[in-house]
Amino acid sequence: MLDTLIRNAMIVTHTGRFPGSVGISGGKIAVIAGPDADFEAAEVIDAGQKPLIPGAIDAHVHFQDPGLTHREDLPCGTMAAAVGGVTTAISHPMNVPPIVDVDSYRFTMQAYEGRSYIDYGIHGGGTAQNIDKIESLWKETGATSIKMFMCFSVADFPFVRDDSMFQILTHLAHIGGLALIHAENNELITLEEKRLQAEGRTDPMCHIESHPAVGELEAVRRAIYYLEATGASAVILHTCMQEALQEIHAAQQRGVKVYAETCPHLLTFVDTDMKKHGPYLKFTPVMRGEENRQMLWKLLEKGYVNTIGSDHSPYAIEEKQAGEQDIWKAPNGIPGIQTLLPVLLKGVNEGKLSLERLVEVTSFNPSRIYGLDYCKGRIEVGYDADLVLLDMNAKKTYTKADILSKAKWSPYEGMEFHGMPVLTMVRGAVVARDGKGTGVQSHGRYVPRKK
Questions:
Q1: Whole-prediction pTM value?
Q2: Which of 120, 225, 398, 403 is the most exposed place for a label (fewest CB within 10 A)?
């Protein structure tokens, strides 16, 4: 007998869709059959012909845990993820302590154990100070990548200059590792910040102006050149310029092992939205204009984007309020894990994106890129039963009461979404239903990359 049978669904994969049923046993997909399947099961869920997709894998999450849990923590962040249809999240290395060696990696694993509603992976980090530890960090853990910044981010996680980045990429090429790269030109950002501050500017648009497009595109090109020279693999994170996506796509065509990530907020907001939202829309890299935003959607559907990450990076509202009168005083980062799928589903309903392409960039591709495709990212027999049922007709205005992140604010407040996840399963257990968390905090498990 099956544990659960989801019958009468429209099963959507990265290559197509078909009416069917999914039988689950022991947390795994045990059988895929026709829509009227009548297997004996402890629980039967009638999907009502709604789309059933693999759970989203959000590989760009800052849980701020351990160490900065006044902003976010693992239980709150993973509950938000579950309600939003994210079944696996991968945490970035800028916690306290930052994840820069085997000991700090294992410390984070221990800190997370038994505290997550969904499954999770953990990225490692690369700085000028841990170059000699990169190979052991990759080989002796299940780290899904090594993250680097090409520009200043936070003091506790120093950015890499060219010599350090080249050395780290050389190490990763030697051992078959994957880099994550935040690509912006630090010197050009510093130049513009000094100019604006000398003029006495403190308005929200300073943030946009201090991150010039030329600096972002140059850094993407430089990163690609170093990947080509070393033979390393990398994801260029939160790519927000159409020209950068075109550069990455051209590099892929000539054999460079580079992937493009973009984010829901870059598909939603434009530069002038800073005037309204101020510090609550302050993140990096910055938004560009409306024409660029429309092109991001078009290039996403055309295949120029390989994966979508939320870059979920909440701050306490008091930290953001400091920037209301002086934008320089606000930190960079916004919450986003709960709204990742709703933003994309709205795009599907607006005809900008197919459900198949959505599945490709939120589950199939990230599972392959980050070495989780032995158990995640597909609706196939033997894979984890990480499943999300969608109601494409549902309309939902996102309010403060809906926010499950520890930071009870969001730039998406007041926005109407069209298309919502209505049931989320992680390894066969229902962890969210109709906008409410239903899971057990100890259910989530650590998922290492395949060796």
A1: 0.98
A2: 225
